[in-house]
Amino acid sequence: MAKQIGCCGIICSECPAFQATQADDDNKRIEVAKQWSEEFKTEIKPEYINCDGCMSESGRYFSYCIECEIRRCCKERHLVNCAYCNEYPCETLSEFFETAPDAKTTLDNIKDDFRTI
Q: Rounded to a whole number, what is the largest CA-CA distance in the chain?
């Protein structure tokens, strides 16, 4: 499976919700829902675990991705991901990076790659 990077720099193809969806694995959905419910202290049902990645056009997104401000902005600007934005990194993204430093590394690497072209 090709690496799929979300707007914010999270690698969608490494996300358990994405993997469960692509494999159409209901047992994995149950496992992910239980783990995330405990981790995020909220109820996440297995049927919520359906996602083709935040930039897909399928309409299957994890519930948070539907309302994600970063995803909305990226789509409105018709960007591949936030590394391609002239305002990178914006305040919203910088706040997100505090909880997801690996996402920042991913986007920084993309930004560096196209600066050298």
A: 46
Q: What is the pLDDT of residue 117?
A: 54
The pLDDT of residue 89 is 93
- Chain-centroid distance, C-alpha 92: 15
pLDDT at 64: 77
pLDDT band, very low/low/confident/very high, at 1 (cuts 50, 70, 90): low
DSSP alpha helices (H): ranges in 1-117?
16-23, 26-40, 63-67, 69-76, 91-97, 101-115
How does 63-82 read in b/e, with b if 16+ C-beta sit within 10 Å?
Answer: eebeebebbebbeeeebebb
Polymer length in residues for the chain: 117
